[in-house]
Amino acid sequence: MKRMLLMMAVMCISAITFAQGKELIQGPAISLNKEVHDYGDIPYNGNGTCEFKVTNTGNAPLILSSCQGSCGCTVPKCDPNPILPGESSIITVKYDTTRSGQIAKSVTINSNAVNEPVKVVTIKGNVGPAPTDAGSGH
Predict the structure, then answer these.
(1) What does the pLDDT look like over 60-110, one tens digit per residue?
(2) CA distance 90 to 81
(3) At a CB cut-off of 8 Å and minimum separation 6, what does 87 contact?
(4) CA-to-CA distance for 117 and 135, rounded, in angstroms?
(5) Is the pTM of this model over 0.70?
(6) Domains in the chain and their CATH numbers?
(7) What contacts 24, CB < 8 A, 6 or more positions away?
(8) Are 79 and 92 in contact (CB under 8 A)?
């Protein structure tokens, strides 16, 4: 039984390695480490910053021409410098956590990628309620 499981694991790893080797895309190509960032529950006015790692999986420089949030409360920053083949860059997204309630926003990434010239990632979570002065005695 153990031998069979080991053989299956080796075959899966070999298949993944072989598939990855064949996927070199002609031209710039965008790949992200995640499509969604889940903040979970964060406190009011807490740290609303997250990152998405962008990797160029193609064979030509990838240029991120713009990164736009779905509203003014979501501010992304992307590096305008070309990302060389095999290299990575970070898109930083800052969400305004002085707004209580559910987070469900998107960031649109425009680039010269041949596989996905327009890529949309999302952020989600829940911002806790604003603190009150009720218990301070003032």
Answers:
(1) 999 999 999 999 999 999 999 999 999 999 999 999 999 999 999 999 999
(2) 11
(3) 55, 56
(4) 52
(5) yes
(6) 25-127 (2.60.40.10)
(7) 57, 58, 59
(8) no
